[in-house]
Amino acid sequence: MGANQLLAELERVGRTRGGGYTRLAWDDATMTLREWFAGQAAALGLELTEDGNGNQTAWWGCGSDALLVGSHLDSVPEGGPLDGPLGVASALAAVARLKASGWTPSRPLGVVNFSDEEGGRFGVACLGSRLATGAITPDAALALRDASGTSLGEVMRARGRDPRAAGRSDWLGSVSQYVELHVEQGRWLAPHGTAVGVASAIWPHGRYRFEFCGEGNHAGATAMADRHDPMLAYAATVLAARELATSSGQRATLGRVLVEPGSTNSIPSKVVAWLDARADAEPALEALVNGIVRRAKAAAEFDGTQVNFRAESTTGAVEFDHALRHRLAALLDAPALPTGAGHDAGILAAKLPTAMLFVRNPTGISHAPEETSTPEDIEAGVDALTAVIRDLG
Ligand code: HGY
Ligand code: MN
Ligand code: MN
Ligand code: MN
After folding, report:
1. What confidence score (pLDDT) does residue 1 get?
2. pLDDT digit string (tens) for 226-251?
3. Residue among 74, 75, 118 to mutate when testing ligand 1 (max atoms within 8 A of CB)
4. What is the CATH T-level fold of the domain 207-315, as seen in this structure?
């Protein structure tokens, strides 16, 4: 079955009234997708494994020196249909094509569905691949809590997994190359008139948690001069992030905010906000984040409130393996392009030769329901991935 048909099967899973897709780690929609993936593996005669972190891999052959392809099936809240699923569906479609053609790999081939790439529920991105590579400890990961206060460990246990099995997985030791196909996020391929590109690098980026603490009080009975409203330092931080990112040509977003108690007629006692900061070089990222933190602390001091700050997850600049990415670019006659989006491939690149293919996204929009590609470009992506597997496999 082709990638377009496979994606059509996922169309209703996790759809929201807003028209987006919400498929958070271990939620009902994502459990449906995991079962779908298992069904696809069985239909293709692939052997399905799951490591202690929830990463599923469907194997064609077994042993060392494996080639791994795939991506993730979870989404951000109200995300688009392709970020993640396109890579998994294209990998399954490529395997189906290769099997139908009678081709057999000379080395083991795995199709992976990495668990919780987006961090949409527990806040930290690429949890499955970070756990599998040791980039985060099981204790730190399992203690992460979602908006309801439930920890990852409790969620995994409720889904029949043993959280004690989480952590570095030995299966990655048998993998010697990873190629992830992904919908383009941003609009570079369209103006360059090509359907498929090869990733050169991933911008350094990080996620940082601000906690603005003030004095909860009555919204009607408290004079303005008597307030210690943490919302003000939060608002100043949002504006500072935009100002500092814009003036330095980098990127910063405060997109995940929790206001407590959150009632209309109470001055908040606490505002928790997550900063997503990205820059074209590590020193620039550090300067950007430090500048935002300085401004947050100054604003809090002015209002007699407090601010706590901590980095939740940071990913250094990723330069994809030169030999591999040049081989793919030559094979496909495809251009190379950097990306500001993070990926599991960025985590694996620290451990083994890794490359990414991007499929044209005509609007460049992602992490929103409007994310799209065309059926023709999706097929072109499968053509490219099939050629890559033939070449490497
Ligand atoms: O956040 C990212 O850049 C990725 O889409 N998870
Ligand atoms: Mn993704
Ligand atoms: Mn994403
Ligand atoms: Mn080079």
Report:
1. 86
2. 999 999 999 999 999 999 999 999 99
3. 118
4. Alpha-Beta Plaits (3.30.70)
Beta bridge partners of 145: 151
pLDDT above 70 covers what percent of the chain?
100
Whole-model pTM: value is 0.93
CATH topology of domain 3-203+320-392: Aminopeptidase (3.40.630)
Q: Which atom of ligand 1 is nearest to the CA of 340?
A: 3
DSSP classification of residue 160:
T
Q: pLDDT (tens digit, 9 = 90+) per residue, 163-200? A: 999 999 889 999 999 999 999 999 999 999 999 999 99
User: For the chain, which residues make up each domain, given as ranges?
Assistant: 3-203+320-392, 207-315
Whether the bond into 261 is cis, omega within 30 of 0: yes
The single residue listed with the structure tokens 């409790």 is 154
Distance 343 CA to ligand 2 centre (A): 6
| Residue from 19, 111, 21, 126 nearest 60 by CA | 111
**Percent above pLDDT 90 for the chain:** 97
- Phi, psi (rounded to 5 degrees) for 260: -120, 135
Instruction: State the ligand closest to the CA atom of 76.
Output: 3
Structure token digits, residue 124 = 């930290």
Find tokens 């980095």 and name the residue. 311
Residues constituting the chain: 393
Return phi, psi of residue 151, to 5°: -85, 160
CB 357 within 8 A of CB 196: yes
The secondary structure of 57-97, three-state, reads: EEEECCCCCEEEEEEECCCCCCECCCCCHHHHHHHHHHHHH
